[in-house]
PRELI/MSF1 domain-containing protein
Amino acid sequence: MVKFYQHLFNYDYQWQNVTLAFWLRYPNPFASHVLAVDVLDRYVDERGVLKTTRLVLKKGKAPKWFPQTFLKNSEAFVIEESEVNPKTQTMVTRTKNLNHVRIMQIEETQTFTAHGETTNCKTEARIISRFGWGMTSRIEGFGQSSFAANASKARKGMRHILQMIRDKQAGNRMQLLATSDL
């Protein structure tokens, strides 16, 4: 069985700021589980689309009821592939964990689309366990509820970074105005 998650959200920020915040979102106070982020590949294709592949190292926790002998390391690598199309003002990201995939695989797709002065974000995820031993459904249920809670924290982290960007832009405008009076 596979569990699904879907959520629609609207950021009260312009698309270019939301896409910038996506790249700057780590570290933030809501993502202490993210240990490292590395860019593996980045290029602009023939259509003008920015394609990026990043490797993210995250730390997680297994539920108390899960046999600890099957999960010796709580760290997992996640591959993140993204496409940013400035012409259509769309950013699509796809992530999936590379470790512990037999226990639980999470495949997430996020689509950020400009909507006037705001940005729509659609998040979809598939949570799959191939563990067996009568625990598949329980693991997937845990994954689904954990994903929902973590997605909420991720939105808070994005809003935190977006506010920092807004504050920085306001400061730059004030500095520009102050120097133009000379």
Q: What stands out?
A: Helices lie at 15-24, 136-180. DSSP finds two helices and seven strands in the chain.
